Amino acid sequence: MAQWNIVVAGCGQMANTWIEYVKTRHDAAIVGLVDVQAEASLSMADRHDLNCGLYSDLKEAIRRSGANLVFDITTPNAHLSTSGTALEMGCHVMAEKPLAAHMSEAVQLTKIARQAQRSLAIMQNRRYLRSIRAYRELIRTGAIGSVGFIGADFFLAPRFGGFREEMASPLVLDMSIHTFDQARFITGADPINVTCQEWNPPGSWYRGSASAICTFEMNDGSMFNYRGSWCAQGFPTSWEASWRVVGSQGTAIWDGERIEAESFDKDGQGSRTQGTTDWNGQEGHFGCLDEMFLALEEGRPAETNAEDNLKSIAMVFGAIESAKLGKTIHIPTLLAQGLSS
């Protein structure tokens, strides 16, 4: 069994979960913390009782620690530099979403990983929930027939402070990647076209557009409609969103917990089914990290590897481009432009 010597890049609040996970493994150890603010890495080391090097430069951290794996938990604007440097220095990378802050950077990182023959896997923790696995299985068994419509509503009002409240597209760039990736995971379909409008509604505490409506044409002929806001106070949805998938023989709903399908036979007689699953993995971040490490052990791409995640992040950047230009964006063309640049 390989020993994973890990450098954690970025010592913000999110790093706590990643470090707690490592402490549950016998084959992994934190050998370095990297942050441009020395007090952040020192505080993180103290909090988790880590006896490791503290650095402000990633290259130095990798060279001096002998790391073979880097956790990139930096802000999106730093992912190209951080993940790219780690990959080029021979490390595998597990990174927080989104893959990158721009489409060209996401494609570039994917190319770097391919050329370095190293794994770049992205945290998509909302794939790793018993409820979404059960919902996916219910739909894919054909309980509601052929899927024609996927709807997801996401309405919450978090007050993060920090970089999110300064972003131009905080909802679409930083959060909707989860819901877009969930749509692909649930249905197995990939995006073809997107039309999007985003705006900042009255009462918003974000500088950028905190609300959006997006409609995607998928490659199985279905349509996926996303409605969301990050400054919607009152009657919140779950963080997993509120879902409705309509098929040729019925409808399946999921609100983050409850799963139910109502299907109809040829005589119009309806019946209801609850979703179940045999999946017993860990949920959330720990479940996604389990899969990432297992993929490394088995020498295969992780379920959320960058090559696949490009399709989800292209939904994000396609939506942003559509809102900016006021027209429908063809996502395969967006991907091809990135690959050729």
TrEMBL record:
Domain Gfo/Idh/MocA-like oxidoreductase N-terminal: 5-120
Signal peptide: none
GFO/IDH/MocA-like oxidoreductase domain: residues covered: 133-252
Alphabetical list of SUPFAM superfamilies matching this protein: Glyceraldehyde-3-phosphate dehydrogenase-like, C-terminal domain, NAD(P)-binding Rossmann-fold domains
PANTHER family tied to this protein: BILIVERDIN REDUCTASE A
Protein name: Gfo/Idh/MocA family oxidoreductase
